[in-house]
Amino acid sequence: MSTFLRDPQRLMPWFIALAVVVHISLQILSFGLDVSENSIVASLIYLVAGFLFFLVAAYWLEQGVQNASRQYLLMGLGMTALFVTLALVGLGLLGTFGPVKGKLLNTGLFLLLIGAGTAGVFWIASPSTRKLTSGKQKIVLALVFFILFVSGLSALQNVLPNLYAGYGLPSLLRQQLVTIVLILFTLGAVRFALSEWGKETFSGQWFLIGIMMISLTFLNLLLSTMPGDIYSWAGRLLLILSAGAFIQSVWWHDRAVV
Description:
The protein has helices spanning 2-6, 8-29, 39-66, 70-93, 102-125, 135-155, 172-196, 202-223, 230-257. The chain is mostly helical. The chain crosses the membrane at residues 12-33, 39-61, 73-98, 104-126, 138-156, 176-194, 206-224, 230-252.
């Protein structure tokens, strides 16, 4: 098993094949199984995923400042965008910001899509050998801007367009936004695949696998038909698995540095 984990390139084909089989199977099963939505369990999944992304973000931001690395800084900022939005969505589902109703859930999905899209943009731009001259200032400015933007969006929840049609079915706007996020993640994965091609950097390869796994989360969101079905629950669990891949990338990078 240790050899398998040490060679992500050998893992990728098996992972892709398994993901396709699982997605097709769960999509079929979701039509025959009645699984209800549970906001508390969903909240815990988002909060755990957010905490794991926070750990990864803190590591890459620290590496970006210490090494004056543009790539590490952008990797960390992408993680930060995800953990902030996942934390807000998780807290929202616990009722922290008011009753868990349609408008709050709609705002939470907007936050998740914006955080994921922001992460995708950062990851597309991150493969680079350029050095930074003011890493700390850029981190502070980026975080302040993002937090202010997210806070402003939360305050405007009454005027946001509805991402769900009747009976919880997805609206056309929701599907378009999720597709945009998927495209951004795909481009980010392609950039990392090209930058890591032929290299024996297990850290970069695991980061690529993490991007691929979180892409599957949003593919799941695109294809899920009803909130709370078994297929949508599987997508939430994919968040945890993607966080595990990102932590694996941190572990290999830290081991190489030491």
